[in-house]
Amino acid sequence: MYIIIYDFGTSSVKTCLFEIDSDIRLVTSSIEKYGLYISDDGGAEQDTEEWWKAICLTTHNLFKQSNIKPENIEGMAFCSQMQGTVFVDENGTALRRPMNYLDQKGFREYKECMGKGIIKVSGCSLYKLIRNLRVNYAASTSAKDPVWKYKWVENNEPEVFDKIYKWLDINDYLVARCTGRIIRTADSAFATFLYDTRKGKEGWNKGLLKMYKVKPEHMPDIIECTDLVGGLTQKAAEELGLKEGTPVYAGGGDTTFVNIGAGCTKRGDTHIYVGTSGWVSTFLDYQTVDINSMITGVLCAKKGYFNYYAELETAGKCFEWVANHLALDEIGVYMNQNKVSGDYENVVTSLYDYLSEEVSKVPPGANGVIFTPWLHGNRCPFEDSNAGGIFFNIRVGNGKRDMIRATLEGICYHLRWLLESVEAKVKTSNPIRFVGGGALSPVTCQMLSDITGRTIETVNNTQEVGAIGTALVAAAGIKGVDVLELSRQMIKVNHTYYPNPENKEVYDRTYKVFKKLYKSNAANFKELNC
Fold first, then answer.
1. Is 60 exceeded by the pLDDT of residue 340?
2. HSE-up of 173 (CA within 13 Å, CB side)?
3. Which pTM does this prediction carry?
4. I need a labelling partner for 56 at 20 to 30 A (CA). Which of 79, 89, 241, 403 fits?
C-alpha cells in the first residue's frame, strides 16, 4: 500500500510517500519552507496560506518524482508541530494568523491567572495546579501554553474572538481543510491541558474550562489519532493533485508518533529526538507527572499509552543559528566548492555534515567553551521564558570551531539533564534510540553517547521518524493490526554507539558547570529580558 504523510515542522513541511508491505520504505519526499514571524511582543506566528501552498507543491512533486499515481494512494495523514493555536469560523477558515508553539504573547494573561494565590508551586497557584493534576497529570505552567494564546486574543482582539467557531491545533486545521470536518485529536486536546485523561472520563473537562474561563462551545468534538476522519473533498483533491475521497486519517502531533517511528513501543523504551526542538521521551502504559521539572506523560497515538516527555525548545535550532550567524565564512567556502542547485534538503544535510566534520577536529570539552541552548527561553527542567543562550569561558586561544562544537555539546548536556530528570521518576532504557535530524551526524551520536553515558542506537530514515510513525498508524488502521506490534516488526537499528570512557572526565566536569549557569544567571536574564 502507498500512504502520504505530511511531516509538518516549525519551518517546513516534508511530504513523504511511503510504501508499506513486509516493511516500510520511503519512496520519495519533497520539502518546502514557510515563514515563522517573530515579533517583539513575544509573538511567533505563521500563515495558513503559506502552509497550504507548501503542502500542494510538495504533493505534486511526489508524483513528478515517482511512477506512483494518485489513485494508488490508500491513505494520508499529518504529523505536525504541537501546541499551536488556530481559530476558525464555521467553514474552517482561519480568522487570524495561527500562533506557533513558541508564541508567548500571553505572558500577562498567564501571570494574572496562574500567578495569583496564597500558596504557590513553581510560581503557580497551588489550587489551580492541583485541580489540573487531578484531571490529567498536567498543568499550564508556561506562558507558551495554548490557553494563554486563547486568552490573549480574547483580551486584545475581541473582534476576532467574537467570530470564533472552534479553537484548533495545527494538525486539526489541516485535517479540516482536507475533509471539511472540524475536530480535534485527543493528543492535541490534551496539549491544551483542558482534557480529562482519566479512564472513562476522557474528553473536555467542564471544571477546567470554567476555571480558565474558556467557552465550551469553542471546543470541537474529539476523536482518536488512529481514527479515519473522512475522504478528501473535491476542492482539496484538485488543489493537492489527489483523488477525491482519498481516506484522511486523524494523525496528530509529532510527539505522538515519534516513539512509534523510533520503534520504542515497550514500557520503559526511551528515545531522544533532535530536530528544531528536542526532547527525551519514555514510553509508558500509565501516566505520571513531575511538576517541579515540568515533565508529564503526554498521550500516545494508541489509547491508554503515554510518552513521559521532557522538552528542550531549541535544539537543532541552535545549530541552525550557528550555521547562519557564526559559520558564514565557512559556509561560503563550502557552497562555492560544492554546488548543489534546486535541492534545499541535500544542501542543508550536506552542509551540516561538513560542519560536523569540522567540529570533530576539536577535542571533547570544546577547549573549555560551554554553550547554553536556551535561545527562546526554556521549559524543562526549569521554566523561564527569559532564559537565553550563553557562550561561556571564551579565552584568547579559542576559535570558531570551539564555539560550534560547544553548541552541539550544550544541546547534549541539556539532553542529559532531561534524561536524568526523567530517570528520577521512571525507569529508562539502555540503549536509547536517537532520532531526528540531529541523529544524521555520527559526531553528534558519539557525543551524545559520551555525555549521557548511554548506548545510542539510530534507525533508517531518522529525519522522517515522525512521518514513519504516522504512516504505521494509518497502515495499522487499514490492515486491522496492532500499531505497537507493527512498529516493533518494521523499525530496525542501523548503527550503535558506545560511550568512550576516555571522554567521561572532561564531560562530567563541564556538565557540572553547565547546570550551574542557569542558576547563576537567572536574575541577569530577568533584568535584561523581562
1. no
2. 29
3. 0.85
4. 89
